[in-house]
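Structure in, sequence out. Go:
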């Protein structure tokens, strides 16, 4: 049974990706490298960007990236991503990352939050327009 202060995974949306970091993704103390988390955030953010753009996108900016708590080997990391702003050729995606500690659904921490900008490109890698939100 959860307590009022206990954090749970979002129930109103599905994770874009879920992954368990392995020992190769960490330092000797078992803390997962920030660069590994950043790479996963970029992958998760690209999923709704590609869907909205209906095709290829490239990452052009990391607008904001906040590490809130460490991630440990064996945590089940759930990445939730949504397009929250659209320009003529660009999309900003909000990504939130939650870790289930030791795979326990009642032990959840929001570990990372980021805003990433992607640009839709054509087959020649030139920017192309996207639909508004």
């Amino acid at each position: 049974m959860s307590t009022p202060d206990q954090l749970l995974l979002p129930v109103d949306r599905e994770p874009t990706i879920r992954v368990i970091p392995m020992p190769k993704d960490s330092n000797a103390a078992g803390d997962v490298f920030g660069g590994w988390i950043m790479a996963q955030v970029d992958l998760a953010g690209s999923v709704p960007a590609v869907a909205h753009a209906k095709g290829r996108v490239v990452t052009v900016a990391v607008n904001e990236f906040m590490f809130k708590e460490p991630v440990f080997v064996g945590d089940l990391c759930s990445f939730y991503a949504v397009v929250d702003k659209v320009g003529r050729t660009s999309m900003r995606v909000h990504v939130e990352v939650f870790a289930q500690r030791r795979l326990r659904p009642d032990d959840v921490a929001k570990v990372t939050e980021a805003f990433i900008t992607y640009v839709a490109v054509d087959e020649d890698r030139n920017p192309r327009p996207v639909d508004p939100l």
